[in-house]
Amino acid sequence: MKGASTGTAVSLRGLRKAYQRGVPAVDGVDLEVAPGSLVALLGPSGCGKTTTLKMVAGLLDPDEGDVRFDDRSIIGLAAEKRPVAMVFQKPLLFPHMTVGQNVGFGLRVRRTAKAAIAARVAEMLELVRLPDLAHRKVGQLSGGQEQRVALARALVTDPAVLLLDEPLSQLDAALRIEMRDLVAGVQRELGVTTLFVTHDQDEAVALADKVALVLDGRVVQHAEPRVFYERPASVAVARFFGGRNAVPGRVAGGRFTGGGLDVAVPTGTPPGDGTLVVRQESLALVERPAPDVVPVRVIAARYLGTAMTVTVELADTTRLELTAPPATAVAVGAPAHLHLPPEACTIVPT
Amino acid sequence: MSGIRRSVGLGLLVVAILVPFVPLALTAVSSGWRYPALVPQTFTGRGVALVFDPDGEVLAALLTSFTIAVTVAVVAALVGLCGGRALGLHRFRGRRLVQFLLLAPVLVPGFAVTFGLQVFFIRYGLADTVPGVVLVHLVPTIPYVTLVLGATFASFDVSYEEQARVLGAGPVRTFVSVTLPAIRPGLCVAALFAFLISWSEYVLTLLIGGGTIRTLPLLLFSYIGSADLTEAASVSLVFALPPLVLVVAASRYLTGAQSGVVGLGRL
Q1: Does the CB of A183 have a partner CB in chain B at under 8 Å?
Q2: Average pLDDT, stretch B254-259?
Q3: What is the pLDDT of residues A54-68, one digit of tens each?
Q4: Which residues of chain A lie closer than 8 angstroms to B177, CB-CB?
Q5: Which residues of A9-48 are buried (b: 16+ CB within 10 A; e: fewer)?
Q6: What is the pLDDT confidence band of residue B43, given thresholds at 50, 70 and 90?
Q7: Cα dist from B236 to A9, A182, A277, B216, whole Å
């Protein structure tokens, strides 16, 4: 990440936006983006992530809050005056222009000299691995090519901040992964601070330096991707990342009790009501009783080819799910032993 | 096979449009054409001379008509751009009502509308003036133009404008470089409509122009009333040809540009 010294820091502070009175789409978003890093704004559709992006771009005015680039507020600056570029879900290539004219659009509106535009357009098309396409008509491109041209067009003006609004969501799966690598490569090469909106957690995790999970108009957790699996901030976060297990209970004297479990918790866990969250991948069935092993009964097992999903029941009928190797022999209805490593457990507020 | 069929069909269509002009053109240059002769027996340059008389009323009326129709087309297109954009892009309360009210001046006979308006034109000194006639021609044209452009904007994706803005284009540049090329076919069709409505308007011109503003339709009616077929036919040709040329030119220009046709189809 060479951009650490050259990129622009982006700071969103208390951003709010309501389209209808009293129904906030964005409800107090705070986010600090390190210079040159790629942050994914992840969330289900309608959670306010695109609205947030449009407020950074200047396409929407926030009702409240501030957007700062390198600690200078850009609120009140028109979209065309902001040092940002945005790629939308659809490529939105101007149909009456060639590929080259599309890519050069941002430079033409800035009255750059023709020769300089041509050189820069060629450079950008090279960057997105579409050289020699400058004279092609827009209608002759494939979906992946269109989105690459859109990326080149956004980068041509050397923006301080790049905004990507689900640019890969309309591509088919194989192409999406290829484009994901391209975007990551280009972003690291240029070191441009990037905000990437997506509803696809795999995409966010694979692409981003940090992920900001947005639920109901707020950033509920902002951290490195692995933290969302290992230390989710809430049951909702764990659920969004596919976590299946949440056991309500109490924390007292450094131990969590609930659902028939009694687990040591990390020091510093606040006492009182809490919910234990543990990933299904962290659980395992073992042969015999041992430390951190609890007795359970197998309720169901589903074979999924590459893995097996096993549902077990604790003493008080609380159910847990675990992912086991596909060859595991499981007797449905029989008692079993569940290994529950305390370090894999997180206590979140109930 | 279908290519041939299409050519034949197209040919028949052209014949159907052009054939009525043949007797008109012949009448315009004939001085005697009596039953049962198939073609005129005697010819005259009287009609041509009338039309091309540099100080004559035909050229003057042609100029007046052209000035008014072009002004009406431009003004109606500008108004329609704003109204059509609002109707096509935004879902607001009372949108259907606005659409209906827009059609009101078209549904109510122009005569009735203008009788009501005439008082105001007289009061504000607009009666018997070219601006007055332009203004009254806007009454039936703006609804059409607005509805056509509304349909055009409905199939326009505003995200293109947002895309242009974030690439650094200001509002004017965005409109000229991105929006205008996208809506151009619809805009041309709308302006053409306005031109044609204004060009052939009779009642409104007569009521507000009061006979002082003599456009081609007014002149044509007086010639038809005079029973001189040669002159009437000559003026008719002057009246009928410009719209025909314009429509042909516009359809050539718009060929391949689908959205104008789509826009019309959506009406």
Answers
A1: no
A2: 53
A3: 999 999 999 999 999
A4: 94, 105, 109
A5: bbbbbebbbbeeeeebbbbebebebbbbbbbbbbbeeebb
A6: confident
A7: 73, 67, 88, 9
Q: Which residues of B touch A106 (CB under 8 A)?
A: 167-168
Q: Report how far residue A36's alpha carbon sits from residue A32's, in angstroms, rounded to the nearest whole number.
A: 12
CA nearest to B220, candidates B85, B15, B51: B51
pLDDT at A79: 93
Q: How many CB atoms lie within 10 A of CB A268?
A: 6
In this prediction, residue B15 has a pLDDT band, given cuts at 50, 70 and 90, of: confident
Say which CATH number the domain at A274 has: 2.40.50.140
Q: What is the pLDDT of residue B1?
A: 52
Contact A105 B164 (CB under 8 A): yes
Give chain A's domain count. Answer: 2
pLDDT tens track for A12-65: 999 999 988 888 899 999 999 999 999 999 999 888 899 999 999 999 999 999
Q: Which two tokens stand for residue A128?
A: 């997105």
Contact A146, A138 (CB under 8 A): yes
Residue A133 has pLDDT above 70, yes or no: yes
Residues A299/A319, Cβ–Cβ less than 8 Å: yes
B46-254 CATH choice from 1.20.120.1200, 2.60.34.30, 1.10.3720.10, 3.20.20.100: 1.10.3720.10
Q: Kindly report the nearest CA distance between residue A112 and chain B, in angstroms.
A: 12
B contact residues 182-201, partner A, Cβ 8 Å cutoff: 182
CA distance A206 to A190: 19
B147 contacts: CB under 8 Å, gap ≥ 6: B84, B87, B99, B102, B103, B267
What residues of chain B lie within 8 A of the CB of A82, using their CB? 166
pTM of the model: 0.82
Q: Which of A96, A101, A120, A157 to mutate to test the interface with B (most CBs of B within 10 A)?
A: A96
